[in-house]
Amino acid sequence: QVQLVESGGGLVQPGGSLRLSCAASGRILSIYVMGWYRQAPGKQREMVATITSGGRTNYADSVKGRFTISRDNAKNAMYLQMNSLKPEDTAIYYCNALLVPTDLSYWGQGTQVTVSS
């Protein structure tokens, strides 16, 4: 019943920036953790960054210092500011939300990020 919709992906040159957004809607009582995951061609899906309702964040080592995750609990929205983008950041980026107390996880359909000259 919960829907997640990503936006903000696109084509950007190396060194550029993008800001991804994720909006959650539906039967939402409480979202404990929201996160961004990505899957590059030929690779498995990996965690990029997560953030709890209290603001605690985790980042993959590959993006630490370049990406910043944030959320607006009132709007049930999440954002990923991506700076200094590299070609290896090219992937489909997926929004994820973990709800409590149901402990159910929901996924968006993904948004394509392509970093290329």
Low-confidence stretches: none
- Binned, the helix content reads under 10%
Q: Biggest sheet, open or closed, and with what strands and sense? A: 7 strands, mixed
CA gyration radius, whole angstroms: 14 Å
Structural class: mainly beta
Beta content comes to over 45%
Tell how many strands the DSSP assignment holds: 11
Describe this structure in words.
The protein is mostly beta strands. It has no helices and eleven strands. Strands 2, 4, 5, 6, 9, 10 and 11 form a seven-stranded mixed sheet that branches. A four-stranded antiparallel sheet has the order 1-3-8-7, with no helix packed on it. The protein is globular.
Helix and strand layout, with pairings?
Blueprint: E1 3-7, E2 10-12, E3 18-25, E4 31-39, E5 46-52, E6 57-59, E7 67-72, E8 77-82, E9 91-99, E10 104-107, E11 111-115
Parallel strand pairs: 2-11
Antiparallel strand pairs: 1-3, 3-8, 4-5, 4-9, 5-6, 7-8, 9-10, 9-11
Task: From the structure above, extract its key features.
single chain, globular, seven-stranded mixed beta sheet, mainly beta, 117 residues, 11 strands, four-stranded antiparallel beta sheet
